[in-house]
UniProtKB/TrEMBL annotation:
Chief location bin: membrane
Name this polypeptide is given: Probable membrane transporter protein
Keyword 4Fe-4S: no
Any one annotated GO CC term: plasma membrane
Organism: Lichenibacterium minor
Length: 260
């Protein structure tokens, strides 16, 4: 790949990292479209490469939350372990699914994410709860399998699904759900990426540069988040609008490709 496209990989990774650092959940949904339409990777390679970069960036952010004590380790480990099985199944199905149809469904998912981000409200703090090996385990395992399967099929981090899954199944406070979810994002993405890599569907140079850009962008985004905190809702709505535009473009491209 020529230097221009490698530079674009760093730039696009930086955009994803900046968005994640600035507004949090939902930012990684842009990883695959940017790799697809800006960097120029084929559909399945874009999904496999995007999954690897999302995994690395999630692990980087997870370390920060762990240092701050924002991780409920038992819940996080159970959700990550069970959900990784779902991610392996989902990614196996995804890489054998027609590329254009997969992108069409991905665009529909982006529309759903955009709507969820528009409707999201600050969560009220709940009583401190954690996962036990009793009643919570079946709920956590069921949610993890479902979310992991979707994450693997579409090659996304799935944080916008993992956080609600943890909240509903364990009733832990939001800050711990966010911190704990990042371990699952990292493991789901890694499982998906390795599954795609086994079929030669990961562009390793692009993935490495995408991760570098994502880390740098994430650092900048987290610094900006504090200063721009009063405008967080406005940024979230703006980003939702961007998601709708990109999803509409993907639908137009994929429907046209499937019709020919």
């Amino acid at each position: 790949m020529d230097p221009l496209h490698l530079s674009l990989a760093v730039f696009c990774g930086g955009l994803v990292g900046l968005t994640l650092g600035l507004i949090g959940g939902g930012g990684s949904i842009m990883a695959t479209p940017l790799l697809l339409y800006v960097v120029g990777l084929p559909p399945h390679v874009a999904i496999g490469t995007g999954a690897l970069s999302v995994s690395a960036n999630a692990l980087f952010n997870f370390a920060g939350h762990a240092r701050c004590g924002h991780v409920r380790w038992r819940s996080a480990l159970i959700f990550a372990a069970v959900g990784t099985l779902g991610a392996l199944v989902g990614s196996t199905l995804g890489k054998h699914f027609d590329g254009q149809r997969l992108l069409f469904l991905f665009a529909v998912l982006m529309m759903v994410v955009g709507l969820l981000m528009l409707r999201a409200k600050p969560a009220a703090a709940e009583a401190d709860r954690t996962c036990t090996l009793g009643k919570e385990l079946p709920r956590v395992s069921g949610a993890a399998l479902a979310v992991g399967g979707l994450s693997g099929f579409f090659g996304i981090g799935g944080g916008f699904l993992i956080v609600p899954g943890l909240l509903v199944s364990t009733r832990m406070p939001m800050i711990f759900a966010v911190g704990s979810s990042l371990l699952a994002v990292a493991t789901f993405g890694l499982a998906t990426a390795l599954n795609y890599a086994a079929s030669g569907l990961v562009d390793w140079p692009v993935a490495g540069l995408y991760v570098v850009g994502g880390v740098l962008g994430g650092l900048a985004g987290r610094r900006m988040a504090s200063a721009l905190a009063p405008h967080h809702t406005a940024f979230t709505r703006l980003f939702s609008g961007v998601i709708f535009v990109v999803a509409a473009y993907m639908l137009w491209r994929t429907v046209g490709s499937m019709a020919t």
